[in-house]
From TrEMBL:
Protein name: Protein RADIALIS-like 4
High-level lineage: Eukaryota, Viridiplantae, Streptophyta, Embryophyta, Tracheophyta
Keyword Transcription regulation: yes
A cellular component term, taken from the record's GO annotations: nucleus
Gene it is expressed from: LOC111022857
Compartments, record wording: Nucleus
Organism in which the protein naturally occurs: Momordica charantia (Bitter gourd)
GO terms, molecular function: DNA-binding transcription factor activity
């Protein structure tokens, strides 16, 4: 069951474009947790036919991922050095 939920979460994430994700982040910053009908407003700001339920679902998935990272349950990937030398 866990693997199917991971697969469905991955598919859900991929249904959001980079532009929609950026608008989503901006809308979350604008409409804080005390905003009435927050996810309806976020979905409207994102556009692209996203629903309040889709906005809420993405928020919940991201929140879950952050909690896993903070709990040390996710291995942080090793990135190649991009050549930045601090100057």
């Amino acid at each position: 069951m866990a693997s199917s939920s991971v697969t469905s979460a991955r598919g859900f994430y991929s249904s959001w474009t980079k532009r929609e994700n950026k608008k989503f982040e901006e809308a979350l910053a604008f409409y804080d947790q005390d905003t009435p009908d927050r996810f309806e407003k976020v979905a409207r700001a994102v556009g692209g036919g996203k629903t309040a339920e889709e906005a809420r679902r993405l928020y919940e998935l991201l929140e879950r991922d952050v909690k896993k990272i903070e709990a040390g349950q996710v291995q942080i990937p090793l990135y190649k050095n991009t050549g930045y030398n601090g100057r």
